[in-house]
Amino acid sequence: MKLLVPVRRESRIALGVAFFIVFVALWSFLSMSGAVPRHFLATPWQTVASGWNLFATQGFTHDVGMTIWRVVGGFLLAAVIAVPLGIAMGVYKPIEAFFEPFVSFARYLPASAFIPLLILWVGIGEAQKLTVIFIGCFFQLTLMIAMIVSGTRRDLVEAAYTLGCKDTGVIRRVVLPGAAPDIAEALRQVLGLGWTYIIVAELIGASSGIGHMITDSQALMATDHIIAGIVVIGLVGLLSDVLFKKVNQHLFSWSLLR
Amino acid sequence: MSRLSIRDVSKTFPGHRRNAPATQALLPIGLEVGDNDFITVLGPSGCGKSTLLRLVAGLETPTTGEIRLDGTKIVGAGADRGVVFQSYTLFPWLNVRQNICFGLREKGMKLTEQRDISDRFIAQVGLRGFEDHFPKQLSGGMQQRVAIARALANDPKILLLDEPFGALDNQTRVLMQELLLGIWEQAQKTVMFITHDIDEAIFMASRVVVFSARPGRIKAEIEVGFPHPRHYTIKTSPEFMALKARLTEEIRVEAIAAAH
């Protein structure tokens, strides 16, 4: 292994798959050897079987759909406000000075701690789930975008001014296209953050969703269902991540040139 | 008639921290640049010559004095002064043609017209066949050629260049000087070219303005009388050598002053 030298595509895929195999092998060993009792840790095979069962007979598709819609809904609400606000903060320093201290403070408020309050304020319906995701994503995203936009190359901005741009032209034709790939990357990372909050939101006062299924299974000691639920979250998260990455690469191919 | 008129212009930068001393980058200077003149501003690093260019470009505001272009006082940057920077400032998300058309599009020019103009300048800087390349796919010299084309496409009254070939290797730099000089000989533009390279300063200029060490002021103005079109072979002529020797002496004193 040489420092910082990239690996070939085939070996990269092989290595990535290899760790999944190692992981499943270890899991099988722990669960099948009896090192961990079966009812605490289901075997991989049991998990796959009960995962199938969940989808086939218990309407789990609906739960997964609900969870995805909540994550995406809350995330989009956050993005719609955070992106313009972050851009405004990045380019206009008085706006940044006005919002930045509060947003930095609010970023550390744990979204899950708001759940009891939100139940009082907006009930246990969808609004509560969306708000949790919104709180979890919004502040983080705003700060990330403000920072990305602040990092706009000064020399490109100056070049645009000397080519006849006014402020709005500089924002539209230099700041936005220059920041777009990093903003898209920030959105991808924060969507991942949304996934970590949704389950907590669904653990309390939900009648559907992956988190709800997990709470139900806990009462029945159905660890196979719990693990299947966790694996599904992982897979959906991975899938959304890959899709996001592909779209970014397609839209901003210029930023990948070396 | 005089195109660019710099009168009693000085620049002092405030200290970064409170109570930090202010930096005087430029002592009050006066300079007239005539129509279609090609002047080079020569000085050691940090002598304030780039500051002067940024003042003319409108990217900085003078502390005292004023700068006029065709009688109009300069306030802020504008398309009438094209700038080529030392760093590579092509927009990385635009290809060569889109970069060259950047200012034309800002003016709201029709696409067909933009295409004609960009075609002409792409040919002039020798980048035919590279229209669809992105900046990162080009060498440093090619990027600076695009930057020159981008500035010229806007048809500015004056072209300002801030050590544009400073980051290039020596052979490329020499070729770029010939290219720029060739363009100037054809197009007749007013040019202000900042450099710390003596050969470069003499070869292209009709007048070399020598700067002192910081705080900058104009130490000497030297006419360069070589006829146009100039061939690179003049660089080895005795007249060129004599001029170079004189400028070397002027600059050396300043470089020593700057180092202390």
Tally of DSSP helical segments of chain B = 8
Which class of chain A in CATH terms? Mainly Alpha
CATH architecture of chain A: Orthogonal Bundle
User: Cα distance, first to last residue of chain A?
Assistant: 23 Å
Question: How helix-rich are the residues of chain A, as a percent range?
Answer: over 70%
What is the fold named in CATH at topology level of chain A?
A: MetI-like fold
The total count of strands of chain B amounts to 10
Largest sheet of chain B: 6 strands, mixed
Determine the mean pLDDT of chain A.
92
How many distinct folded domains of chain A?
1
Query: So what's the oligomer here?
Result: heterodimer
The chain pair forming the largest interface, with residue counts per chain, is: A-B, 22 and 26 residues
Please name the CATH architecture of the largest domain in chain B. 3-Layer(aba) Sandwich
Structural class of chain A: mainly alpha
Q: What is the general shape of chain A?
A: globular
User: Rounded to an integer, what's the Rg of chain A over CA atoms?
Assistant: 22 Å
Amount of beta strand of chain B: 15-25%
The share of residues in helices of chain B is 25-40%
Alpha-carbon distance between the two ends of chain B: 41 Å
The average pLDDT of chain B is: 91
Q: Give the CATH class of the largest domain in chain B.
A: Alpha Beta
Description:
The complex is a heterodimer of chains A (258) and B (260). By secondary structure, chain A is mainly alpha-helical. In chain A, 79% of the residues lie in helices and 0% in strands. Chain A is built from 10 helices and no strands. Chain A has helices at residues 9-32, 44-57, 60-91, 93-107, 115-122, 126-150, 154-162, 167-203, 210-219, 223-251. Chain A is globular. Chain B contains 8 helices and 10 strands. Chain B is 36% helix and 24% strand. In chain B, helix 4 (111-124) packs across helix 5 and helix 7 crosses helix 8. Chain B folds into 2 domains: 2-80 and 158-259, Rossmann fold (3-Layer(aba) Sandwich), CATH 3.40.50.300; 91-155, no CATH class. Chain B is an alpha/beta fold and 260 residues long. In chain B, strand 4 and strand 5 form a beta hairpin.
